Amino acid sequence: MKHTAVYPFTAIVGQDDMKLALVLNVINPLLGGVLIKGEKGTAKSTAVRAIADLLPAMEAITNCPFHCDPGDENRLCDDCREKTGADKALPVHSIKMRVVELPVSATEDRVVGTLDIEHAIKHGEKKFDPGILAQANRNILYVDEINLLDDHVVDVLLDAAAMGVNTVEREGVSYSHPARFVLVGTMNPEEGDIRPQLLDRFGLSIEVVGENQPERRVEVIKRRLAYEQDTGEFAQIFQEEQGKLAASILQARRLLPEAVIDDRLLLLVANVAIALDVDGHRADITVIKAAMTLAAFAGRANVEPDDVRRAAKLVLPHRMRRRPFEDGTLDWDKVEALFAGL
Amino acid sequence: MVQRTVFPFAAIVGQDSVKQALLIAVVNPKAGGVLVAGEKGTAKSTLVRALAEITGKVQILELPLSATEDMVFGGLDLQQAVGCGERRFLPGILARAHHHVLYIDEINLLRREFVNALQEAVITGVHMVEREGISCRHEAVCSLIGTMNPEEGTLSPPIIDRFGLYAAVNRELDAPARAEIVRRILAYDRDPAGFRLQYAALTEGIRQQVAAARQLLPTIVIPETMVLLAAQMCAKAHSAGHRAELFLLEAARTIAALAGRDYLLPADMEAAACYVLPQRMRQEQEPPPPAPPEQAEGEQTQDQPQEQQQEPPPFEQPENQQPEDQSDSSAAEQPPGEGRDQEKVADIDTQFPFVRMELSLPQDRQERRGNGKRSLTRTDTKQGRYVRAGIPRGAVTDLAFDATLRAAAPHQRFRDKGNCCIAIERADLRQKIREKRIGNTFLFVVDASGSMGARERMRAVKGAVCAMLQDAYQQRDQVGLIAFRRQTAEVLLPVTRSVDLAQKCLRHLPTGGKTPLAEGLAAALAVLAARRKKEQDMQPVLVLVTDGRANTAADGGNGIDEALAIAAKIKKAGVHSVVIDTESDFVKLGLARTVARAMGSSYYSLGELSDKNIMHIVRNLP
Fold this sequence. Notes:
heterodimer; A: alpha/beta; Rossmann fold; 5-stranded parallel β-sheet; two-stranded antiparallel sheet; about 45% helix; B: alpha/beta; 6-stranded mixed β-sheet; 22 helices; Cob-chelat-sub: cobaltochelatase subunit (chain B); ChlI/MoxR_AAA_lid (chain B); vWFA_dom_sf (chain B); ATP binding (chain B)
């Protein structure tokens, strides 16, 4: 696979929340992705593309278009399932998790997959030609300007995201395949809003603003210039830091399954959700999962109240807008008051 | 099909009424299926998918939103046609769902005609296929389960009515129960197999309950008294038609069967009524009997998706809830205006019923670009949803390959195929027909003059506009907002897709001063003209909200005459319009009606809007 140079993740100046949110999702793909809101030129896309470098390797079944996980029998595609049934040892190779981009102009056929034309003509048989959702399985699905995505593509995306399966009933093909992905979306709120239903799908959300300290801005420019002058040398400078971050991501991944959380904290989060009157239960679940991931990232197995507090800040803001027009803001005092009672 | 490990049905905390409704649907197709409604993140889909492992031989087939029509209703078997040159029917999902359960997630996002056709087949239990030279009839006895989030738009009453049962999923408000939900999900994520094992006994129990109920069901006879009771209950609820009685009795029988009894109790009827009647209840002559709290939801979805009964009024914000005298005193602090020209900012009446703006403009053959959901249009971009294929008129720009193959297939025996398996000729080519709904453009022209300033009235006006904006959001319309007061009209919001912004503008809209109605209409005309240059195929609707008491004009002339003149121009420009008359003074001048006539508008009074629950205000456009 060709390797195009990307700006090193650790070279991005500031934007700590955005970087943290992305890293947390890499550590724990069950967090539900992240929505990054902000104006143009605030390194949103750069950060998303840069995370690719830090993504861990994973085992995948060779030649499977959905790169099925040999260790997860429940999420194998039909083909792999059939083959494992016949002969237990399927060839496996190691691939890197990657960032799959969904262009805003993508058609429904490209997203869900379609009939394989060549195969049909040559053999007179139907065969499924996988789309972007197939590529996205076990990877990061990145939609830039997600608020501009066509409604019916959003519907399809939500459909797949809800169950981790893409079901196709079109163009003469009935097919379903695993489609579990980390959804990362970026948007500039000035260009329109995003449907609450889609909003709720994002585990975390953060708002980015440009740096406002002159020294920091200068640093941003300096690094950009250095990067453009010699990408290789620039990457070299950050190699060590990149390596460190990649290592801590791996360590956190290993630690995550051990994470334990106190019942008191579970109850606290439930009370926060009730006090803030958020829709549904996804908020509670995500706060807890994010807190556990934060603890793992900090090298701990036990979740501390501060992990929960930080998680709440990443998880709750975009869930305050309960109605299509409501412009709710997170009442942080309420949250703090509940924490104080701990 | 990918096999999925599902979260066990038995491990879902609470939601007992939804669980029971689902069980009724899987045991007895005659109960009419179930519509599950609830806000996002309330485990609607999890509940339905969890059913899969307790239904025994009955499968849950899922219908994805992107399904094409031939895949649902069936069509020509391609491989058979290519291989043997034989036209043979390939069953669609509907046929596969025979004796099973068909599940549609987000059913409110599907095309109405599509859902209609599907329900029709399910209700009659047979489906006729007439396509691609095939004529076929197959059975389709199944239960339909639909889920929806009312925030994204409601279903039309006839569609809701064809579902036997209705169940609302509510979020849990008890902290320990919420914590338990999280605890179970964490445990499931960590070790799905182990977690499922913990619930294996409970799951098996439910599976046996369902199987036993299926066995028992045919033996349960409905006594005459129960039929009478059903009739009484339905009459009390003012439900239309007689479908309700049948659904009620079937649901009650199934409840009895699930309880392991082979006879009916009045309590079964009462339990069934909770699922069958709420959505059918109507307010006729007398108010309906008070429903238990969870039942009220049903009626709500049909009428006003989220307002009313639910605890927190959506748009109310504390800072706007100033008592009358306080808002007066704050107005007094402002620099003195002209006489009574004091500014007031009324809050929004959040109890205003939902107002649906429905266009009855015929679907034409013109292809439009754009987004939205209100008007169905053909689309020439490759953007829409592929619904079916057709014979191309002119060049093929968007080849429907599947349909092309099917068209070519029966001729293969006689064609020279070269190295391929299929030879395609020009006459076989088929074009994709894609459909998407595009939004319309609603330009709200709101009177913000002093005469509108009476606090309660402006509250109601804002409430009405807000209710219309809610509809606009769901239909992905574009909206614009013009307010007129004092000497001028102001474009508060140029036409935008952000309904959000419109609502914000509305919230902060102050009232006061004279009524330059003519200016307001002129501004609207200008906005629409500019807009038309950008989007020629736009079909704008102007919504004028005023009491019509124009009392100022640019040239110092008669405000009314000037307004009428511009109204006539708007009519001439072919702009559809609606006038909402806010006049409520004791002496009615009826000026807004005069303006409406001049503009060729549909006319409604504010009172009419709030009296009726669903108001199709734009339906009867001239």
